[in-house]
């Protein structure tokens, strides 16, 4: 395990501006303003565990209550591969809650996650780290994308379940609602190629009004706030709802990827309940 989830060296290696006397001051500011100190404290409190035990201990110590609806649908898949597709309302905590939920039934469940979440070494048995949304204009990103997709398909081929956030980013703020952007073709093509049952999973949560307001200014400014949105969920209740599994035969009816994505997204958001 790491001494710290996010170390000073990690930040200082990002750019020369974080080095030297002024760099040390700037690094301290990043840790404080960016919420890194709080995230490290959460990690430190549970890092004696790994995998599902780490996830549940961390969520329990944060006082995050998980409540499930139609959870028994997973009992149909005690063996064999399947894919969960989920909305992405909060950020890093979505992936952690998804693992707590689905791996509670299937310990071999893994999620496709971004670089930041994959830094949690105590959870790496449930991760396939990848940047599946790269534009392809950088060879390194393209290689990461292709390698990660290959790992996902191999995981499914070997008979294991996989979790995906097809939006590839945290839900976007609109004037009257917060909702995922259009689900990304790269992930939808992966689902098509896998030819396994798909289970919609709706995570009923939201971020603070500060985070939502920043989203109207700039997504880059909003991203700076994202780690705070992990630590401020203490004592919250988050509902996870499962929909009817979508068979391979039903998926095959959609030949247009965009229509396929709209269908899967609609099946997921159909479980949203009015507050």
Q: How is the secondary structure organized here?
A:
Layout: H1 8-12, H2 20-33, H3 36-46, H4 51-61, E1 65-69, E2 83-86, H5 92-102, E3 110-113, E4 127-129, H6 139-157, E5 162-164, E6 172-173, E7 178-179, H7 185-194, E8 198-204, H8 209-217, H9 219-224, H10 228-231, E9 237-242, H11 248-251, H12 257-269
The spatial strand order of the largest sheet comes to: 1-9-8-2-5-3-4
Count the DSSP helices: 12
Distance between the termini: 41 Å
Helix fraction, binned, reads 40-55%
What is the typical, i.e. mean, pLDDT? 86
Specify the CATH homologous superfamily.
Glycerol-3-phosphate (1)-acyltransferase
The CATH topology is what? Glycerol-3-phosphate (1)-acyltransferase
Sequence of secondary-structure elements: HHHHEEHEEHEEEHEHHHEHH
Count up the domains. 1
- The global form is globular
CATH architecture: 3-Layer(aba) Sandwich
Q: Please identify the structural class as seen in this structure.
A: alpha/beta
* Share in β-strands: 5-15%
CATH class: Alpha Beta
Cα gyration radius (Å):
19 Å
Main sheet properties: 7 strands, mixed
Oligomer: single chain
Total beta strands: 9
Organism: Dysgonomonas gadei ATCC BAA-286
Domain Phospholipid/glycerol acyltransferase: 82-206
GO molecular function, one term: acyltransferase activity
Protein name: Phospholipid/glycerol acyltransferase domain-containing protein
């Amino acid at each position: 395990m790491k001494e710290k989830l996010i170390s000073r060296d990690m930040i200082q290696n990002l750019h020369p501006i974080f080095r030297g006397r002024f760099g040390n001051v700037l690094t301290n500011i990043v840790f404080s303003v960016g919420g890194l100190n709080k995230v490290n404290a959460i990690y430190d409190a549970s890092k004696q565990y790994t995998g599902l035990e780490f996830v549940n201990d961390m969520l329990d110590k944060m006082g995050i209550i998980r409540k499930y609806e139609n959870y028994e649908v997973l009992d149909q898949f005690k063996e064999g591969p399947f894919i969960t597709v989920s909305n992405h309302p909060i950020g890093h905590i979505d992936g952690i809650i998804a693992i707590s939920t689905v791996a509670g039934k299937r310990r071999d469940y893994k999620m496709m996650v971004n670089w930041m979440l994959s830094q949690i070494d105590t959870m790496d048995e449930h991760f396939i780290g990848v940047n599946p949304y790269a534009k392809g204009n950088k060879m390194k990103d393209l290689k990461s994308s292709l390698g990660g997709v290959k790992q996902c398909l191999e995981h499914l081929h070997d008979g294991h379940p996989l979790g995906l956030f097809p939006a590839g980013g945290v839900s976007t703020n609109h004037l009257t609602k917060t909702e995922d952007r259009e689900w990304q073709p790269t992930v939808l093509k992966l689902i098509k190629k896998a030819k396994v049952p798909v289970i919609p999973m709706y995570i009923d949560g939201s971020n603070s009004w500060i985070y939502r307001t920043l989203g109207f200014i700039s997504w880059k400014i909003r991203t700076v706030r994202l780690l705070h949105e992990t630590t401020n969920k203490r004592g919250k209740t988050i509902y996870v709802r499962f929909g009817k599994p979508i068979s391979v035969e039903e998926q095959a009816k959609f030949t247009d990827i965009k229509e396929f994505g709209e269908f899967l997204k609609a099946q997921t958001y159909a479980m949203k309940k009015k507050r």
